[in-house]
Design goal:
The chain has about 210 residues and is of the alpha+beta class. The protein has one domain (about 10-210): Glutaredoxin. Helices cover about 50% and strands about 15% of the residues. The chain is built from eight helices and six strands, in the order E-H-E-H-H-H-H-H-H-E-E-E-E-H.
């Protein structure tokens, strides 16, 4: 892969994970604020349907997205359609891998676009027609069997590296699980979420300090 000259922020995450959608945007914002367009975000596959043995529940995901929007991310989750919720993300993750094969910047753009398609545009990213439309629109070839195998390889590598869940960030010798959010449960069992700005800032600053801007 190519595309940047600075450090690479590695993230193990799934596309239909609403917490990863918030976390990736938060890291992207801090990178922009630092003026570090030399830094790439490499989103690896952490396929929750394989991790958990079943797909995500669309109603539970909708509830989490609602909690995130209400409490910490009012500009996100504008158009999540439960009736068009993906039945799988394996092919979408494979498409992201296909994009990263050519270039880090292209891979990042496709990874973010897939999440926007799901959470901001109400598209079913498990639908082959939708994936082909997105691939054509973004100038990326459709995934092949090697890309699908790479999704499973990422999962196994994440297991070996101690990934705790989606999203888990790595940079240099530092790693942190879901650094942008502090999550607990209210007595009514709904999520109570606050932005953990200090933990996210510390992680990103340590990562960016590994090398200066190009």
């Amino acid at each position: 892969m190519s595309g940047t000259t600075g450090p690479v922020i590695e993230v193990f995450a799934d596309i239909w994970c609403p917490f990863a959608h918030v976390g990736l945007r938060a890291v992207e914002a801090q990178r922009a604020a630092a003026g570090r367009d030399d830094v790439a975000i490499w989103v690896r596959a952490w396929p929750l349907e394989l991790v958990n043995g079943s797909p995500l529940d669309p109603r539970v995901t909708e509830e989490h997205a609602d909690d995130l929007r209400a409490q910490v991310a009012p500009d996100l989750f504008r158009h999540l359609e439960v009736d068009r919720f993906p039945t799988s993300t394996l092919d979408a993750l494979a498409l992201a891998h296909r994009a990263y094969r050519s270039d880090l910047e292209v891979g990042e753009r496709v990874s973010f676009a897939l999440r926007d398609a799901l959470f901001e545009e109400g598209r079913d990213v498990s639908d082959p027609v939708t994936l082909e439309y997105l691939a054509n629109d973004l100038g990326v070839a459709m995934p092949d069997d090697s890309d699908r195998a790479a999704v499973v390889d990422d999962w196994h590598e994440g297991q070996e590296r101690g990934v705790l869940g989606s999203p888990h960030f790595f940079c240099g010798g530092t790693d942190v699980f879901c650094p942008s959010l502090a999550i607990s449960r209210n007595p009514d069992e709904r999520l109570a979420i606050i932005r953990d700005t200090s933990r996210l800032t510390a992680f990103v600053a340590q990562c960016l300090a590994t090398t200066g801007p190009a």
